[in-house]
Amino acid sequence: MPFIDPHIHMSSRSTDDYEAMAKAGVVAVIEPAFWLGQPRTSIGSFIDYFNSLVGWERFRASQFGIQHYCTMGLNSKEANNEALAEEVLDILPRYLAKERVVAVGEIGFDEMTELEDKAFRAQLEMAKTYDMMVMIHTPHRNKVEGTSRSMDICIEHGLDPSKVVVDHNNEETVKETLDRGFWAAFTIYPRTKMGKERMAAVVHEYGPERIIVDSSADWGVSNPLSVPECAAVMKARGISESDIKATCYGNAIKAYGQSGQFNESDWLDAPAIDQRELFEGNKVLRGQEPVVPE
Amino acid sequence: MKETYQIGNLDLESSLGEEVEGWLGQQQGILRENPPHFPIAFSLAARQRMEGLFDGSLPLGWTPLTLLRAKLLLSESVFEKGLEWIEECFRTADLGESLDLYRLLPLVESECDREALVWRIGEGLRTNAPPVFEAVAHNSALPAQLLSEETWNQMVLKALFIDVSVTLIVGWQERRNPTLDAMALRFASERAMAHREIPEDVWNLVMDPISEKGQLAVNHWVENHPREHFVHLLKTHYSQS
To answer: Is the pTM of this model over 0.90?
Structure first.
């Protein structure tokens, strides 16, 4: 079965991960712009990071037969540096307009400060201006309130819930998210928060409609194979093949396909992998035999 | 003046179809009031559907998207500072955008600071990414027109090194020089020593030595390398001698 991981920070992962993901059936990934584990201190760092999401990382993924897309946004933590945040918001529209940028994201709340609120609203307005999808990061602390409030603000700004993916849901937030017409994404973490068994129970209870599974794997302890592994657990718990395909593949296409930048034909008709290709003169290989088309 | 712009046989006024031209007109309206919108318009161009809308012939490497971006660049209030806006786009460009930015440099040549243009061409040639190098070096009159002999020679040698065609560089025959011949032959020697293939363009470059010194260098090379390294050369030029 093919899989999509619609939220994973590949820049912080190794080529071993790409190899394992491709082997497990992952055909496409969406990499949301986020923070680097520590705050950036200048606009140049943001520009170079954004450039890498539409440049080197896209090429690196293609070398393993995986299609790479991204979302662009100012994350909630770094929204708290007001002067720098303004510079980022100034430059952001340039990136929203680029090919394979499928949404504004991940944006939303961390500590629910006034500055986070301001940056969130400014970016929702950009999503309207450029007719884009939105990917919302819901806070790890105070989750229920933060999730409700994020959706309230989207509605207040006139966004259509069918164009907004609310991520990092759990059993306490899923009902409201679905009832209000938003997409409900779930991050499967290796130990804490949402797990595979709990995910299977959610799909069992709510059905597959508008539910999306992802890994959010990054530089922390996380699992880039969360989506295929979760699919296996769902299968073992008696969830139907079509419901698994919807939550681990099809719904991501339905949601992000609305951007016009995320098309199944991109990977179905993709050229065969050729690791001899160079990007900026760099190969991903270090002396191994390249994989080339037959 | 800009209305008469042509690249090769391509008239830049050629239509891209009603819908795209409509979008272009709207963007030009925004740019007239607000030139800093240019980098956004340049990116947004990729979101216009253009398959099958243009049936004319395009310069080597160009796509209908390049043509649309050229039209944006020629917009009133953008064009007079063309290179400055191109540089602004380079700051945040993805790979595909970089290629088009390099392809559009010949358009702004007459309007811009020569030193800044030479720097940008040099920057493009410093890349090791073959597509970027080709966008700068191929099918453009600028390198032959603007580069010093030293930079020119480095460009041609690098084309050999990264396996990019030399014969698609405009002026590659006219700007040959004894130093470049010697560099090409030294490159061929290094490849021969490493038991690696020697690109055919080496022989295209040194085929008819342009000086007595060049002829001696070629003769010396042929005498000192195994036959298989210069089969192409032997077949054509030296087979009778």
So the answer is: no
